[in-house]
Amino acid sequence: MYDKSQMMRGTLEGCILKIISSEPTYGYEIVMTLQKFGFEDVKEGTIYPLLMRLEKKEIIWSEFRSSPLGPSRKYYSLTEAGRNLLYDFTQCWLSVSDTVNTILKLGE
User: Fold this and answer.
1) H or E, element range at 83
2) Which pLDDT belongs to residue 33?
3) Which of 11, 77, 82, 107 has the most C-beta neighbours closer than 10 Å?
């Protein structure tokens, strides 16, 4: 059986960039959105190191905001470099998925 989680990991960064592209989003909210759309195995322990790496590379930036439900939350947003990377990811994904779909239809 093919390992779906391995394939999903390869697209995780681009999906995270898309999730935070429309509005600032905190880590747990990113995890819940990913799980809602099929990344069932993604946990906070996977996401936070990735967010830290993206922030260090200045792809995203963060700010703490107060929360009515408890301690402040760290919200993430895209930088201009992050918007450019999301665009590149989207173009690459569309090209790759078109190619794979074409190959999978061979012989039909």
Assistant:
1) helix 80-104
2) 97
3) 82
Q: At residue 58, does pLDDT exceed 80? A: yes
Select from 14, 8, 1 the least CA-distant residue to 59.
Answer: 14
Distance in angstroms (rounded) separating the CA atoms of residues 16 and 20: 6
- Pair of tokens at residue 32: 């819940």
Helix axes 44-56, 27-36, angle to 10 degrees: 120
Q: How far is CA 74 from CA 10, 53, 59, 64, 78, in A?
A: 25, 15, 16, 4, 13
* Number of domains observed in the structure of the chain: 1
Round to whole Å and give the CA distance between 23 and 49.
Answer: 21
Q: Which domain holds residue 81?
A: 4-98
- By CB neighbour count within 10 A (0-12 exposed, 13-18 middle, 19+ buried), where does 105 fall? exposed
5 sits in which H/E element:
helix 4-9
